[in-house]
Amino acid sequence: MFLRSENDHFSIQNAKEYFRCSMKLAETVRENPPVNESKFFLKGYIDAHNNIGMLEIDLDNLDEAQKILTKGLQICADEEVEEDYDGRSRLHHNLGNVYMELRMWDEARKHIEEDIKICKRIGHCQGEAKGYINFGELHYRVQKYEEALCCYRKALDLAKSMEDEDALATQIKQNIETVKEAIKVMGDLKKEEQNLKKLTREMTSGKGTARERKCLLQQNASLDCLIEKSRMILAWLKLLEFAKRKKRVASALCDKEKLGDSFLAIGESYQKIRKFNRSIKWYMKSWETYKSIGNLEGQALAKINIGNVLDSDGDWTGALDAFEESYRISIEANLPSIQLSALENMHYSHMIRFDNVEEARSRSPNVATQKGKLFRSSSIGEVVIASDFAASGSKCDIDVNGNLLHKHNAADLELLAGDRYDWCIIFKIDKQLILVEASSCMDGDKLSIESIKVELACLYYLRLPIERRSEGLLPIIRQIKSSGRVEEFLETIETLKDCLGKVSLEASIHGWGITIN
């Protein structure tokens, strides 16, 4: 789940504290165990390492998670715990996930295979199925699609062999469809590569002629297509190759905006392959280039991406500064989608990184919906990583084209392939932006204006400082305007398609008069 509310935040903090207490207690008892019960407390001690490791994964502290989970396995070895202990399989399972995120493919493979072997030996079908799901994810990330399909089919066979695992089977089927779609995109990418080769040959013959600029523009368009398709299938090394070629073409065109775009794509590539110093270098180049031509949108995008890299690299203060700068620029340029993303990242930093609930509340963009999901991914879909622990913290990324992405640190059995952002309506109240999920305010196939007013009042109230909320009053919203026109009737969702994901509706507060009991 996405950590938006204070309750979620406190739950994570409490869980972390309880797990650490259980670890200390288990360690104390292990050293002085009751007669014949040493094995029980030893396993509790090992499980505590697994639980804390999973929490660190969910908070995107991958290096810390790797240390804790590895220590758990070392305890198993030192204490000569049986090879087929299910706690070992869980440690291997989660270490496989950690190394996958760190792009240490050989280490990830070793731990995933060990997880599968243990589950198979002890007859734990669900664990074995989840192991194959992770193995499929590993192959998917390195574009080995046939191997990924093979793993998912094995997982599906196991899921079908168990009772009450329909949800697991359904998610595996969705992953299979995602891989099949990726195969199609890879085919399109290879065709476009051939087109680029053709354009490159034409450029050779057209150099120095009137056709030269046209050839360069055609190459740039082809490279943009290749960059997007590489991004869709997570082929980051391919994206890096095409982004560097785009840089050369943009330089030949003397087009600073295209050059800034190429720098941004290069930075993204290095970020995804976790070469953070290089990523920062190229993101800074993109920011400087956009600044030189007065492109505020490019500057805001670059700053958010710089913040995300700094956060991943452990520089949380620097990350927060970058998010705040992006927010300032997006306000100046009136860029609502980037403004929302910057706010979300500022909220994440204060809530998760600095444990500062009051500051987080003041930065909350109030984009939470009843289902807790908002932003879309620019990829075809995200293949599930089967995890034994569901909670996760998230922050927002923005791709080169300005699309809002969710950074998922861990996923439970859910494949995010829908474009849910398009079904949210952005309202402006004073200077604040609030998102309302359209489906929560439907009356049949039409939108209920009164339901929207109630939803807006509640969401606005939740943004208030705690001292204001303690007064127990909700704002009264009487008017909703669209392009200056007061809306007083129901509209179908189709007629508001142009408003979805855009700030085109305004609401105004007319007093405070509803008491909360």
UniProtKB/TrEMBL annotation:
Q: Where are the TPR repeats?
A: 129-162
Entry-linked InterPro entries: TONSOKU, TPR_rpt
**Which terms are listed as keywords in the entry?**
Coiled coil, TPR repeat
Question: A single GO CC term, please?
Answer: nucleus
PROSITE patterns in alphabetical order: TPR
One GO term under biological process is: response to DNA damage checkpoint signaling
Whether Transcription regulation counts among this entry's keywords is no
Q: Which residues form a coiled coil?
A: 182-209
**Would the keyword Coiled coil be found if you checked this record's keyword annotation?**
yes
Q: Which Pfam families match?
A: TPR_12, TPR_8
Query: What protein name is recorded for this chain?
Result: Uncharacterized protein
User: What organism does the UniProt record list as the source?
Assistant: Carya illinoinensis
